[in-house]
Design brief:
Oligomer: single chain
Radius of gyration: 25 Å
Shape: elongated
Number of helices: 1
Strand content: 35-45%
Low-confidence stretches: 111-132
Mean pLDDT: 86
Helix content: under 10%
Largest sheet: 5 strands, antiparallel
Number of strands: 20
Length: about 250
Amino acid sequence: MRVAGSGVIDRTRFHGARAVSLECRLAATPAAKVDALTRMLGPAARPRLIVTDTDWEPWPRRALRVRVDQYAVCELIHTSSWFRDVSVQWTAPEGIWTAADTVRYEIDLGADGRQGRVYRLRSPRVYEATGATGVVSFDNPGTSTSEWTARLHGPCTGPRLTCDDTGDAVVFDSSFRLAAGEFVELDSAHATVYAQGNASLSRLHRLDFASSSWWKIRPGTNTIRFNPTSGVDTGARASIEFRPSWI
């Protein structure tokens, strides 16, 4: 609440948790299916509730990660010898629908993207600059921002992953080197950086924190750039993976 005034202090940027209720009829060995549902109600369980709707194109399957809010059971509404009508309740901690399947894009650093050369042969010739490299543009069909994971592969020095639309970037210090065959895995939801995807090999301390900002994939068009500062050689590339999200 606001002090000495009506209303609330409005600084919210994110959604809260969402209550999830499911009523369904279980037939054909219904008791066994009640037991299967009950296994999803343990306090440590984090199942995904997947829903299909033919109008949800091009991703007809959407998911909510859920957990039991308090001790809960499958509440029996109606029962007979061949079916059970039950009610189940969960909480969705993120409060956001996501695509049931992830989307992945590759970012290739095949060409160096430098300016063309001007030199004399029999007459002046100009070789045009190569096209932009290390960039991928894609459309996020969701209505909410999405977290992402990415892998940055060497060989390169001072790797950076930049969102061209906002200018935000995850930037490593200029002396950090990825050799051929090495990569770092980034996770925007948890702000982690692991060498070779190994949680025991954190490289978070190699970030340039003054220049780094963990951005999110926005609804609509996104342009992502893998732009190391130097030392790029054959094999350097990146991949980014996310689930489109809906409110």
